[in-house]
Design goal:
218 residues, 6 helices, 0% strand
Length: 218
Amino acid sequence: MHEQPASQVTETKILLSDPTAMGVFGLAMVTFVAASQKMGWTTGVTYLIPWALFLGSIAQIWASTIDFRKNNYFGAIVLGVYGLFWVAVAMHWATSLGWFGTLAENADPKQLAFACIGYFIFSLFIMVAAFEANKVFAAILVCINVLLPALAISLLKKGTPLGTASHEVAAWSELSISLLGFYAAGAVFLNSYFGRVLLPLGSPMGWIRKGPAKAPAA
């Protein structure tokens, strides 16, 4: 009897480009436009919604899905988490403008403050990891962790001196996030395209070593 030839297995490897620049640019753009309203350069939130949905949400969530496939754990979680944040914020703004119908009498916009507090809690953990990514990402996370509680306080204490001061802090921290984000997106894009460091992002802090803990000395 003739032996059957062994079937050959063909593997197809799909190469995916680094989506970090796209995701970080989305964050930079939406915070820049949103900061313009907080700084008093523009008014209202109606025309912020498209930027929140397309740049703050879709760009970051798309980049997150690519990072999941590339096994980039940090990028996948961070971009996905903040992308979903901007979906919710856009829906909050649209609801407050009556896009989905008349608001109920007991509708309370202060619930967004508690969402900011929840995001602030998780952002503290993200910040720890960001310190071991690079210095620019670490600076962005520091600013985010100033922005979120400031936003929460400005909503909970609206109309008070504390609320006004917190709104000012939120405005400047959000503007800082956008400017740092533009630099980070540009640096990642150019460094990846040219295959070498043209714009430095800063080395990790080196405070926490990745990998399993070292075995205690005998």
